[in-house]
Amino acid sequence: MAPADDASLSTAPDAAAVRSLAVPSDGAAETGPGTVVWHRTDLRIADNPALAAAAAASDRVLPVFVFDPGFHDERGAACDARIEFLHDCLRDLDRQYRDVGGAGLTYAHGDPLDVLGRFVDAGWDVVAGATATGRYGRRRDDRAREELGVRFVAGDGLVRDADRPRDGWSDRVESWFASEPFDWDPRSVAVERVETGVDPDRVAGAYGVDSTKTRVPTGGRGPAREKLDAFTERIAGYPGSISSPVDAREGTSGLSPYLRFGCLSVREVHRHVDERAPDGRGKSMFVSRLFWNRHYTQKLLDWPGWLDEAVNPVYRGFNRDRHDPELVAAWKRGETGFPMVDASMRCLRETGWLNFRMRALCASVYFHVLQQPWRIGADHFFEHLIDGDAAINYTQWQSQCGLVGRPGLRLYDPRKQVRDQDPDGEFVTRWVPELDPLPAAHLDAPEKTPLAVQRETGVRIGEAYPYPVVDYEAARSEFRDRYGAVHGAAAARLADEEIARRASLSGGLGAARTIAADHGDARDPEEADAATATQTDLADFG
Ligand SMILES: Cc1cc2nc3c(=O)[nH]c(=O)nc-3n(C[C@H](O)[C@H](O)[C@H](O)COP(=O)(O)OP(=O)(O)OC[C@H]3O[C@@H](n4cnc5c(N)ncnc54)[C@H](O)[C@@H]3O)c2cc1C
């Protein structure tokens, strides 16, 4: 997005406004004016560890969201639709505070350290929920802790207090799911607010936020609860609707953007489904996804480098020498000549959402077939996904590409995905309308359509729609050779404790050592066709 009149938004609130917040006359001055709750990705007042801690510590809390120019200006990695979704969530958070009798949410703007520093100078304490972040966020939070004394409150189910976080991890997460939510009593604290002149509309105007995406859900806790209720009703149909990109749109929960911005806590979702959904496969599969959410987030907590470089050093720079900007552009635009990939990439760009299988397919074709550097692809996803969550997106990309060094590379065949997941061509022709006149039988590989059919339907491959940008079989086999040549070395590196820790496998260091022992230095990686491979089961989180 282009900043429109960024200059009109200075750092706010200014120090005078912060000082002007009246200090209560009841002696609270001795303990300071109160506690600021710095909201980040926890845009709710229920089951919020930082808010509960603030309310326990002070009679006055002041909830703040800081619009950080680094997120909103040209350095920001989020598409406008994700920012608009965030803005919905913030308006909703403001309402949540008002609904319980508080004054609402304070919208601040500027470098969070500058903004929070003004409160600290005026005597306020600051608390925030601890979150898993990449290196930038970790540096920011470290500075906030060291320079301003910000207290980061854990309570998101991730393991922070153990030398080996993966030992007994699933038991700990399970007991966190079962534990009581964080609570606070709005009648026992005054929720304060300071007027800053900043609000989501002004920020949108100042930074030129204006999304062109369609079908983007409305952010906020209200819409999130509606989705959760509706999904709980239809959960029995969940297993049958996960894989097809058409069925998944209405069949999976649609909760990912709400979980990403913390409109609901993962624990709240777990509890709701546990208590209200009928027992069965749908429920157990869904609950295992909530574990995956925590599993991938734990990975980023364990190593902030996931966003920047391959977790296994052997794969650092893999595909870099093959970087071809035209191939990357064709993938981004949805013009690769592989209809399922093209439909998915156009759908991602227009709606900001794809189901798991299509995300995995696009990542696989990008890295294994087009053989392009993984980070560019992962960044593109992260930009366009409404649920773009650094912790899940980059770790999933590395897993799907095979950068960890585990055996069992998942190579998705884009043509098989059409036959299996979209046999009538509904998804493909919705997003690649130029193929609509072709009989569905040719949609898996339009380039093989007999010329007579091309003439008859007017769909000339090479004109109306491109030939595949690479020869699929040749590229796949070449990738296997290149990958296989170094996989043994990569697996062997998992014996290195430092690498094993950062890989943060669900089975801990033991699992990493077993892979190194069984597969280290092997000549060929084991391969599993993703179309038949099953994903990690809940039982694997031991
Ligand atoms: C390359 C790639 C990138 C991805 N990037 C993201 C991302 O940025 N943000 C994101 O939330 N999910 C991401 N996912 C995981 C998954 O595709 C989405 O969570 C899911 O499609 C969201 O739709 P839903 O909420 O309807 O899912 P549901 O099937 O209803 O699942 C419920 C919740 O479980 C969690 N979940 C489901 N599948 C996974 C998974 N495989 N890994 C981790 N958590 C999971 C999510 O929080 C999701 O909202 C990615 C997957 C891949 C392969």
TrEMBL record:
UniProt-annotated stretches for the region Disordered: 516-542
Cofactor(s) listed: FAD
Q: Where is the composition biased (Basic and acidic residues)?
A: 516-525
Top-rank taxon of the source lineage equals Archaea
The family database entries (InterPro entries) matched by this protein are listed as: Crypto/Photolyase_FAD-like_sf (IPR036134), Crypto/Photolyase_N_sf (IPR036155), Cryptochr/Photolyase_FAD-bd (IPR005101), Cryptochrome/DNA_photolyase_1 (IPR002081), DNA_photolyase_1_CS_C (IPR018394), DNA_photolyase_N (IPR006050), Rossmann-like_a/b/a_fold (IPR014729)
Q: Which residues form the Photolyase/cryptochrome alpha/beta domain?
A: 33-158
Report if keyword Repeat is assigned: no
State the Pfam families in the record: DNA_photolyase, FAD_binding_7
**Which stretches are tagged as biased composition: Low complexity?**
530-542
Its keywords, alphabetically, are: Chromophore, FAD, Flavoprotein
UniProt-recorded name of the protein: Deoxyribodipyrimidine photo-lyase/cryptochrome family protein
Supply the source organism for this entry.
Halorubrum ejinorense
